[in-house]
Design a protein that fits this description.
Involved in protein export. Acts as a chaperone by maintaining the newly synthesized protein in an open conformation. Functions as a peptidyl-prolyl cis-trans isomerase. The chain contains twelve helices and eleven strands. The protein is elongated and about 105 Å long. By secondary structure, the protein is of the alpha+beta class. α4 packs across α6, α8 packs across α11 and α9 packs across α11. The longest helix has 35 residues. The strands form three sheets. Strands 6, 7, 8, 9 and 10 form a five-stranded antiparallel sheet that branches. It has a four-stranded antiparallel sheet with strand order 1-2-4-3. Strands 5-11 form a two-stranded parallel ribbon. 23% of the residues are buried.
Length: 500
């Protein structure tokens, strides 16, 4: 076998591989000799079938098997011998001329094919001890725990029908029909809808106009949908709602005691506080980790500047761009609405894709040198988490991961990445800093991101084209579009993305 490098341009490589016809024929003859004692052909005793006859009957099919095996296995062996790693699956090209292919299968011509690929650039790891990060820590107070318990207890709050007018905090049961320009719109109708006045579930101005209504009242209220409302046909429009009040109920008092804990499935108030405190600490801990991780990735990005394989960058960019355009379509917005242009957005997201790929390669190299491994137990837990997200589809999910090449990598990659970050945290300089909740959840633009872990999406340079990982739904929970309140997608910094 002869291997000739025909292209070495940047990270791009192309090899020409030639296997002489005589070598192909020798391989075929080995297969025929092995098959001689196994095949059963009428007119011949077992093991006495002439090789020439076998070649006439099975030669071309065996050669076809050999060709398939060579193009499947040989490129990997060749790259290994060259000390190279391909960024993606190498592209194999061979003759498409039927006559030439027939000659190869008859061992009358050399078998030639080309292997085109991009190499993963060599990465010389640098000392990570110079990386410094600030770990922001929030101390959870007793008042905060109690406040959260009161919010949780709202789900267990009871209401009793009352006579008289509805006040702030009362629950009203209403039928409503929404109209724009006198015409009812989709999703603007509901019956027996329960709404706690002051809960801010509906669009601004809706709930306030229910203060003072009584059971049996009929009323028309007028509101204006927010300009950033996700349903484009309603955004910024004035609407009326025909309201029929069916019931007004006053809230029961919430007391923080063991009885409350029991209604929530816990044995005591102390246990409830313990659980709630743990949840708050976990929430803060996740936000803290994301900020620490962001700092590490930012500094790694500065430390490692090299050309990233273009095919990996292209694939990453397409994933991002597809999500961005989906979000824009769902929000009814354009790039101009977000104070940018498609060209500028493409440029910014392309940079993000390059950053992700480059950091992904760096983290992979760091993890490999540190012998970071993902255990089978960790993979099983990740798979179980996937199954929980799709109840009733467990079989389909399992079949997907069993039968789809590379699917398991989507489970392994985030686990591996987090373990590499853990490894780096043991090497970098970490300084703890006590901060407030607002400081922890504020990004560099001053926007709070409470309850939102850092995700793998970015914003255009001027403003978010759409927050790619926070799609705005048209309704909350019950599929009703009209009076539900929704926030505009927020922007997220381009470099807030994790590396893959």
């Amino acid at each position: 076998m002869q291997v000739t490098e025909t292209l070495a341009e940047g990270l791009k490589r192309e090899l020409k591989v030639v296997i002489p016809a005589k070598d192909m024929e020798a391989r075929m003859n080995e297969r025929l000799a092995d098959a001689k004692d196994k095949v059963r052909i009428n007119g011949f005793r077992p093991g006495k079938v002439p090789v020439g006859h076998l070649k006439k009957m099975y030669g071309k099919s065996i050669m076809a098997e050999l060709v398939n095996e060579i193009v499947r296995d040989q490129p990997g062996q060749i790259l290994s011998e060259r000390g190279e790693k391909s960024a993606t699956q190498p592209e194999i090209a061979m003759t498409e001329d039927e006559a030439e292919a027939d000659k190869i299968l008859n061992a009358q011509a050399d078998f030639e094919f080309t292997v085109a690929y991009e190499v993963i650039p060599p990465i010389e790891l640098k000392d990570a001890s110079g990386i410094t990060v600030t770990r922001e820590v929030v101390e959870v107070s007793e008042d905060e725990v109690n406040e959260q318990i009161e919010k949780v207890a709202e789900s267990a709050r009871t209401y009793e029908t009352k006579k008289g007018k509805a006040a702030d905090g009362d629950r009203v049961t209403i039928d409503y029909l929404g109209k724009v320009d006198g015409e009812a719109f989709d999703g603007g109708k509901d019956e027996d809808s329960e709404l706690v006045i002051g809960s801010n579930r509906f669009i601004p101005g809706f709930e306030e106009q229910l203060v003072g209504v009584k059971a049996g009242d009929e009323k028309v209220i007028t509101v204006t949908f927010p300009a950033e409302y996700p349903a484009a046909n309603l955004a910024g429009k004035e609407a009326t709602f025909d309201i029929t009040v069916k019931d007004v109920a006053a809230p029961g008092k919430i007391e923080l005691n063991d009885e409350l804990a029991t209604t929530l499935g816990l044995e005591s108030l102390d246990k409830l506080k313990e659980v709630v405190r743990s949840q708050i600490e976990s929430q803060y801990g996740n936000a803290t980790r994301q900020k620490v991780k962001r700092q590490i990735l930012d500094q790694l990005d500065t430390m490692y500047q090299f050309e990233a394989p273009s095919k990996l960058v292209d694939a990453e960019f397409e994933n991002i761009w597809r999500q961005i355009n989906t979000d824009l379509a769902q929000s009814g917005k354009t790039f101009e609405d977000e104070e940018t242009t498609e060209e500028e957005a493409r440029d910014e997201y392309r940079k993000l894709a390059e950053r992700r790929v480059r950091l992904g390669l760096v983290l992979s190299e760091i993890g490999e040198k540190a012998k970071v491994e993902v255990s089978e137990d960790e993979m099983q837990r990740a798979l179980f988490a996937q199954l929980q997200q799709f109840p009733g589809q467990q079989k389909e999910i399992l079949d997907y991961f069993r039968n789809t090449p590379g699917a398991s990598a989507s489970l392994r990659a985030p686990i591996f990445e987090e373990k590499v970050i853990d490894h780096l945290l043991s090497e970098v300089s970490v300084t703890d800093k006590t901060v407030t909740k607002d400081e922890l959840f504020a990004d560099e633009d001053g926007e709070g991101d409470a309850d939102k872990p850092a995700k793998k999406k970015a914003a255009p340079k001027k403003k978010a084209a759409a927050k790619a990982d926070e799609t705005a739904d048209a309704a909350e929970g019950d599929g009703k579009a009209a009076p539900k309140k929704k926030a505009a997608p927020k922007k997220k910094k381009a470099d807030e993305a994790d590396a893959e």
